[in-house]
């Protein structure tokens, strides 16, 4: 796991900058539009699928909880709003070196202030502080701008483009060496998580229906929704494309981290599915950060489930709020294990649900985390495939013309003369 994490930062920088520096503004612009349209469509469909299933199956039982929660809308929306602003703050870090190991997080601090009449009053202060954790979003924004500008400058910045292209080759070779250890490492990670559950049977029984709802939702999205989108765009067999991503899916199940799976996803797309490297170098790092279909679906189901066990019937407006909040919160989910539990706080506070009830689902999150990460990774892979099909003509036009080599044949004529004669 540490070896894979070690490669995240150089892999994102090398792949993004080297890929974008080889594209002109028109190509990168079209690629961005296609990629973000795919991200928005799949994430929204994932949330709608999750909410529809959790409302139909209704896994939450209010009788299991003795103390019911009374929602309070006074302060929750402010907290959710600040969390969304954190996304914008992290997109533009004030120090790119610091962004490699810290990110911005807003906290509320209540201070007691004495006035002239010697009475104390409470004052709510908003403090934006730095917390440990790689600011992947800010790093990606910087690398995208860096790569695009290199491509626009042209020959004068060719030295930088060559440097990052060479760095990308070196990082890829190191990743291939790390992959020799992956069978042992992934098997050990899964075994350790299973052994860490005290009573697996009782835990699964207690939250079985909830788990079933999430799993059905993830399966519908992975095997129906995404393949239909890919087929509609490419007119190719989506399940054959999915077969090429099998190693990335298994790695996602073992690591529960889409960022740690990123090196393997690159290999699967470029070698097995023959996706253009110019597509993968741009679409994949961005998708691993903001395209979290499985996380969005999971957060929507879990939020409605928590409302159900508290006996709260969500109104249509609250369901819409959960949908939008889960979609946006998934963008800010870090590409690390159990990041969905952190961003779920945003969804719960948006509709005034108790954040303490997250502890009810932590017991089974180790399994669901791996499944939703697998959906996230495969969704990113299909995104590269869709963008590849939509931008295929632009990529072909951008390739330099292939000039046939002039070879003298036995009769004294050249291949070039034969080409002219046949023409």
From TrEMBL:
Pfam families: SDF (PF00375). It comes from Steinernema glaseri. It is found in: Membrane. The keyword Protein biosynthesis does not apply. It is a multi-pass membrane protein. PANTHER family: AMINO ACID TRANSPORTER, SODIUM/DICARBOXYLATE SYMPORTER-RELATED. InterPro entries: DAACS (IPR050746), Na-dicarboxylate_symporter (IPR001991), Na-dicarboxylate_symporter_CS (IPR018107), Na:dicarbo_symporter_sf (IPR036458). It comes from the Eukaryota. Keywords: Glycoprotein, Membrane, Signal, Symport, Transmembrane, Transmembrane helix, Transport. This is Amino acid transporter. The chain crosses the membrane at residues 35-57, 136-154, 174-195, 207-233, 245-269, 316-336, 342-368. Belongs to the dicarboxylate/amino acid:cation symporter (DAACS) (TC 2.A.23) family. Residues 1-25 form the signal peptide. GO terms for cellular component: plasma membrane. One of its GO terms (molecular function) is L-glutamate transmembrane transporter activity.
